[in-house]
Amino acid sequence: MHKTFLAILFTIFATLVVRAELVFRAGAATSNISPWMGLSINGNMHNHIGTNLHDQLHVRAIVLDDGTNRLAIAVADSCMIYREIFDNAKKIIHEKSGLGVENILMSATHTHSAPASVSIFQTDADKEYQMFLTRRLADAVLKAINNLQPAKIGWDVERDPRHVSNRRWHMKPGVINKDMFGGTNDQVRMNPRPGSPDLLEPAGPSDPDVSVVTIKSIDDKPFALLANYSMHYCGDVGGDGIYSADYFGAFCEAVQRRLDPQHTNGFVAILSNGTSGDCSSTDFEHAPTPAPAFTKINAVANDIADDALKCFSRAQYHEWVPLKVVTKEIVLGVRHGTPAEVVRAKVRLAKVTRHNGQVSPWSPDVYTRETVLLNEFPNQVPVILQAIRIGDLGIVAIPCEVFAEIGLEIKAKSPLKQTFTIELANAYHGYLPTPAQHKLGGYETWRARSSYLEVDASPKVVTAVIDLLQQLRH
């Protein structure tokens, strides 16, 4: 017993000595991904061409190093990004720095005013911009690695329900909800008219958490801030051809003004998208008041920035915390049309009248085309999942537009003290509704390249990420 006790004391002493020799470091950087004019813009049912740039688009990155493990998180002002782009960027980073690709998390914010990086609905991605984006994703992380310095880190969470609500609504009896395949079995409507007397109740919850990771230099100067909020986007940019980072970019500028107004500290603010696949900034219970472009974007950005600063001020800062990253691939099925549906879609598509190569937006013709294009997908796809531990904070990365109730379930089941999810991370696999939400129907469940994973995908994803979070405990 005496020898066992001495052995335990020796192990504890040795661990403390090793930790005393370790230095926690952090680096942060940005790279500009603003496009040239004339590129298609993602996030619409028909093709919009960029004609003006309202604000600069960026990749914003932080790199953390505990002396043993190193990880990177990069968030790009883009609607969604293919896995191939992320993987190629990670490969460049690995080749130039040695950082393992499995230790890099990359995601898109989901601004609907960025150049297309994914071909979806009637918008096709520009290959030259995809290559540009790949290099700039890598650049942001490589610069952050070069900026590594001793640092302190903390985290906290603030709740702010003012700007997020579920956008899927049950309607009063007798109101018909039509889908794009000619069916009338949908039980919910996405984005109904605000203030409509036909509204009953939302079909699901929203997540009001503003989760924040804050970093200071050793002499307590603001260094970097990573926030996470589960709200889709604002979109009040004032025109179809406007490039903008939406409220994600406005948030970063608002935090910068508050913490490093003179740009003397090299401070970097980042806002990642949480689980917002079914959430919006719209107050559906009340009719909207007309307002100039960017009014909502700036209001949301400033309020969430205020929340983030509360977290920055009250967080408990640590001069060293352990870091760990685990990843896993699972295989999920793809929802194709039946052979008969595909044949009918091809026949119909051949007869569709097009204007400038486009079919009518929000029409069955769009989904006819999607049925044909989706038929080229394999029967199954590999889906990459990732979890990060920073002290007793957990970060989950899912490559989908994740419904809020899934994010809330992950938080509730996580073994770590605080957890949040970054969606649209490391790949793009469309919407991720729950099986129950699939039964309700609605836009997010309609079969297309924007929503093609099997109906039972979300329980499999949740099971896998909870397993990853359990692994982080050891």
Structure description:
The chain has 474 residues and is an alpha+beta fold. Helix content is 31%, strand content 26%. The protein has ten helices and 23 strands. The strands form seven sheets. Strands 7-6-5-1-8-13-14-16 form an eight-stranded mixed sheet. A four-stranded mixed sheet has the order 18-19-20-22, covered by helices on one side. It has a three-stranded antiparallel sheet with strand order 11-10-12, with no helix packed on it. The chain is globular.
Map the helices and strands.
Blueprint: H1 2-21, E1 25-32, E2 40-41, E3 48-49, E4 52-53, E5 58-65, E6 70-76, H2 83-97, E7 104-108, H3 127-146, E8 149-159, E9 165-166, E10 168-171, E11 188-190, E12 199-202, E13 209-217, E14 222-229, E15 242-243, H4 246-259, E16 268-273, E17 279-280, H5 295-314, E18 323-333, H6 339-351, H7 364-374, E19 380-390, E20 393-397, E21 401-402, H8 404-413, E22 418-422, E23 431-432, H9 435-440, H10 457-472
Parallel strand pairs: 4-15, 6-7, 14-16, 20-22, 21-23
Antiparallel strand pairs: 1-5, 1-8, 2-3, 5-6, 8-13, 9-17, 10-11, 10-12, 13-14, 18-19, 19-20
